[in-house]
């Protein structure tokens, strides 16, 4: 049973529904526990399982009896939590029903020690903690009251198939025009939630300097992500970005797309994908862009350098607009280089970051327990 009692919507919340179909293909009977009416619950239903639901995180602890009954009725032996706050319930269930194995994935990358009495009790019941990168595993080893043998690095995986090119050239050009990209321009995109910490402002400064550094280069910036709180973004931050675009004189050269359901197709419309996040615990957007065969520029921080090798992308300092401008100029001017990097990135994604391999490793950990 995957437990995700979150009313938000991001990579963490999307994870259970993303992997459950593959778990089922590999022979596991999968269940879910979510907040009633949450997008997590809806996503689980869409993935083919009707989740058990509770009305709120606080009341979940009061529902421990019915949850235990559900676990017994379905013969569930493994619990997998995805938010640290959900460990209260997971650890309680494991305490009340000896034999349950409790797993936890640290999707966020812990930033402060968790070694108080409560944490020693809760994490002490965790059979295996999954770190989603080597960068986060190093933090996990320092922060959690667990021995190294119970903290395993397990890269996330995605379904690669949707990212394979599907558009013919006419459809691709039509989509580029819809995004405001002039004919003959290099489309430079930044996908992801519009929230602080994702590097949008440094990227915009980089575009402004690109205009001066490569005055001969025709380009257009595309900001992909929801514009409202309901779409997962910070509205005050979006307003600040719009103001910055105006201040930098980029109104005619940057498009805000809003939330889109067709991200794999948007990748087809882009020539360069930028991910300037300052401290990514993994970098799912990087992997998605790699799977799409795109030339990627990522921030030289957090876990992103683990994902991008020299022959499959470029790195730029997360706080240096000049570095971003230089990287965008290099890739913008060289279509053959973009193609080589994109092909290498796709191959690396196939080798390292497919959901089939990820779930196989996950299932092996479940089985060993």
Automatic annotation (TrEMBL):
PANTHER family cross-referenced by the UniProt entry: COLANIC ACID BIOSYNTHESIS GLYCOSYLTRANSFERASE WCAL-RELATED, GLYCOSYLTRANSFERASE
Keyword presence, Glycosyltransferase: yes
Pfam family name, one: Glycos_transf_1
Gene3D superfamilies for this protein: Glycogen Phosphorylase B
Domain Glycosyl transferase family: 187-347
Annotated keywords: Glycosyltransferase, Transferase
Name of this protein: Glycosyltransferase family 4 protein
Transferase listed as a keyword: yes
Entry's family note: Belongs to the glycosyltransferase group 1 family. Glycosyltransferase 4 subfamily.
Domain Glycosyltransferase subfamily 4-like N-terminal: 9-161
């Amino acid at each position: 049973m995957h437990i995700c009692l979150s009313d938000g919507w991001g990579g963490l919340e999307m994870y259970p529904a993303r992997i459950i179909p593959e778990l089922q293909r590999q022979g596991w009977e999968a269940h879910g526990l979510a907040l009633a009416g949450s997008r997590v619950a809806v996503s689980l239903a869409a993935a083919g399982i009707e989740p058990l639901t509770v009305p709120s995180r606080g009341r979940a602890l009061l529902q421990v009896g019915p949850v235990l009954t559900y676990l017994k009725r379905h013969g569930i032996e493994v619990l997998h939590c995805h938010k640290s706050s959900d460990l209260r319930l997971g650890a309680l269930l494991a305490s009340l029903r000896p034999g349950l194995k409790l797993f936890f994935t640290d999707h966020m990358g812990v930033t402060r020690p968790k070694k108080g009495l409560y944490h020693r009790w809760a994490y002490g019941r965790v059979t295996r903690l999954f770190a989603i990168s080597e960068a986060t595993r190093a933090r996990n080893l320092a922060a959690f009251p667990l021995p190294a043998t119970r903290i395993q690095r397990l890269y996330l995986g995605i379904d690669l198939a949707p990212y394979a090119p599907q558009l013919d050239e006419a459809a691709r050009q039509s989509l580029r025009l819809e995004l405001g990209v002039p004919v003959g321009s290099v489309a430079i995109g930044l996908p992801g939630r519009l929230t602080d910490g994702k590097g949008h402002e440094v990227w915009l400064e980089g575009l402004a300097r690109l205009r001066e550094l490569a005055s001969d280069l025709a380009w257009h910036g595309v900001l992909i992500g929801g514009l409202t709180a309901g779409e997962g973004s910070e509205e005050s931050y979006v307003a600040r970005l719009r103001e910055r675009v105006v201040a930098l004189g980029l109104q005619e050269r940057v498009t805000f797309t809003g939330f889109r359901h067709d991200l794999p197709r948007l990748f087809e419309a882009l020539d360069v994908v930028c991910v300037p996040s300052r401290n990514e615990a993994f970098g799912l957007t990087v992997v998605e862009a790699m799977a799409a065969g795109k030339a990627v520029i990522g921030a030289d921080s957090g876990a992103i350098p683990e994902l991008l090798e020299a022959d499959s992308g470029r790195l730029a300092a997360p706080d240096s607009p000049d570095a971003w401008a230089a990287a965008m100029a290099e890739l913008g001017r060289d279509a053959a280089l973009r193609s080589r990097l994109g092909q290498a990135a796709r191959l690396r994604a196939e080798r390292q970051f497919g959901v089939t391999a990820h779930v196989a490793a996950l299932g092996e950990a479940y089985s060993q327990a």
